[in-house]
Amino acid sequence: MKVVQNLLFPMSDKETQQATKADHVSASKTTRATKKKPTSTKKGKPKAKSAARTTKKSSSTKKKQQRPYPKVTIERALQVAIKIKELNGGNPWTPADIADAIEIGPRSPDFYYVTAASRDFGITTGTRDTATIELTDLGREIAYAPSKDAESAKKIEAFHSIDLFARVLKHYKGSVLPEMKYLGNTLTREFDLAEEHHQEFAQVFRDNCAYLGITAGDSEPAGETPLATTVVVGETTKTTKLKAFVIMPFVERNPDRAKGFFSEVLRSLVTPAGVNAGFTVETANRQGSDVIQSTIINDLLEADLVIADLTDHNPNVLFELGLRMAADRPVALIKAAGTGKVFDVDNMLRVFEYQPQLWTSTLESDTPKLAQHVSAAWENREKHPSYIKILRRAGDHDTAANESA
After folding, report:
1. Torsion angle of alpha carbons 112, 113, 115, 117, nearest 10°?
2. Is 305 helix (H, G, I), strand (E, B) or coil?
């Protein structure tokens, strides 16, 4: 702006000085802006930068997928219903009182997730942010169940009310999930679950199934024998292409074993040990069936190595082990510490004992030892006589002795 004195309305000396000062400031800003922005010889470049900024801004403002399943387990969510029953006679109760009863901050995110999970499982209505929380019909059937079996059935019904849980259970025909690499692919492709939720979903799904004792899917028509499927639970990064097939109990028959014990042994101990030994680890997803099917037999006989868990002397495991031994194929035997001996197997073949507590410290100790045991079973398969060869030699010796007599 140039300071031009209006002939009709002349400015005072003070106004002229202020206007002149404003001109200097404006000129100074223009000069700095000119120095800061050198002239580009390439047309369209400034527009490209603007487009890049727009794209970056739009991607950063993209909304995250809302979690399509409860963040906490049904076991924890049931605390809400239990406290309403025990401390308020089953009547609607304020969130603040419930929070105090389960010892969680009433305005904390943790309390919101617990109450939201209880709502999503269909156990209660309301959350941290409502005036009251009260039991639904399903919640009352669980809280006031007439028997343990009735209570268990209603809890499982609540689990199946979460669509994603039910669909994943049906897809895998059971609760055994594959290695995260393959599980993640399926969760993305088949269930449209964002990658950011994969690890959390897998953990919550497993914890729920372990608590409820769920091993079977529900995809088979009633009255038909469910088909067993083979699931890859761990894949080696080595180029050996060796496969280890795991046979172990799928249901805890021993009252001393917590629900989900064998699933945890498979996931936290056997699978990482087998992978570290250079094997892709597979197992059968039996869906809770005791029927030994052709799928299991074929995998049992064709695998490079079978890892057999003798814990609790499960009849199916012993039968399958007998088939494998009769085929004169290598096996690696394991059992939880405290398990009694099985026939002559313990005396004639090495059996690795793992600590059943499955603490982090015991797993850190047992996993590398088990990996060595698995490797040794494979590497020494030709060096040491197998169980069936030992028996045949003993039989030949007895026959020769009888003939000489």
Report:
1. 160
2. strand
Residues 43-72 as b or e (16 or more Cβ within 10 Å = b): eeeeeeeeeeeeeeeeeeeeeeeebbbbbb
Tokens of 179: 């290695």
pLDDT digits (tens, 9 = 90+) for 175-229: 889 888 889 999 999 999 999 999 999 999 999 998 998 876 643 434 444 445 6
Amino acid at 98: I
Least confident window among 237-241, 263-267, 362-366, 371-375:
237-241
Give the residue numbers spanning the domain of 353: 229-389
* pTM of this prediction exceeds 0.90: no
Query: Token digits for 141?
Result: 């059937």
Residue 275 lies in a domain: yes
Question: How many whole angstroms separate alpha carbon 46 and alpha carbon 342?
Answer: 79
CATH number of the structural domain spanning residue 126: 1.10.10
Cα distance between residue 77 and residue 143, in whole Å: 12
Sign of CA dihedral 218, 221, 227, 230: negative
